[in-house]
Amino acid sequence: MIVGSWLKEMMIVVSREILFRAKAINRDEYICRSQYKNGDWVYGLVTRLYDARFPSLPAEMTDINGISQIEIDYKTISQYTGMNDINGRKIFEGDIVHCKARIDHANMFVTFEDGKFVMVLCEEFKTHKRGLGHYEIECFDKEVVGNIYDNPELIDKAIAKSKLRNYEILA
């Protein structure tokens, strides 16, 4: 049964919770079936992606309670990484996490590259090139401190701090 054992090996699947989040939009334009307000995070599954050919049809989600047709801002769609921070909070793509290693610490943002979730230093947010200078998400103690949509000042602060550090090195 060589074929049977090979098939069993191929059927081994790594399972994790599939969950997305995005910000609700168009909540004040008509009567809605849910209590979400513009800018509230919706957690659930994306049921319709945005298509630029049909700009009047926004992306939609069904939330974890089964409420469907919630219009969302497609630019804020983030997938759950399958990992939690040190406080048990779910880590999503786009989150800013404070990472601690043995001798150093830094704020990093979570992104999806080359088939996996990785972290990139916040100071490299605007200059990061895919596949370069990222860190494995599993390697650090992490705490979610914000996200790139609600807390862009965390990115700006890291960039300013990096420029100051570079200036001090040159001086």
Strand order of the largest sheet: 4-3-2-1-5-6
Ends apart, CA distance between termini: 71 Å
| Largest sheet data | 6 strands, antiparallel
How would you sum up the global shape?
A: globular
Give the amount of beta strand, in percent: 35-45%
Query: What is the ordering of alpha helices and beta strands?
Result: HEEEEEEEEEEEH
Instruction: Round the Cα radius of gyration to an integer and report it.
Output: 20 Å
Averaged pLDDT: 81
Low-confidence stretches: 167-171
Number of separate helices: 2
Which structural class do you get from the secondary structure elements? alpha+beta
Give the SSE layout.
Elements: H1 2-10, E1 20-23, E2 41-48, E3 59-63, E4 70-72, E5 78-84, E6 90-92, E7 95-100, E8 105-113, E9 116-121, E10 134-136, E11 141-147, H2 152-170
Antiparallel strand pairs: 1-2, 1-5, 2-3, 3-4, 5-6, 7-8, 7-11, 8-9, 9-10
Question: Please, could you describe this protein's structure?
Answer:
It is built from two helices and eleven strands; from the N terminus they run αβββββββββββα. It has helices at residues 2-10, 152-170; strands spanning 20-23, 41-48, 59-63, 70-72, 78-84, 90-92, 95-100, 105-113, 116-121, 134-136, 141-147. 16% of the residues lie in helices and 36% in strands. The protein is globular and about 55 Å long. The strands form two sheets. The protein has a six-stranded antiparallel beta sheet with strand order 4-3-2-1-5-6, with no helix packed on it. A five-stranded antiparallel beta sheet has the order 10-9-8-7-11, with helices on one face. A hairpin with a 6-residue loop joins strand 3 (59-63) and strand 4 (70-72). With 171 residues, it is of the alpha+beta class.
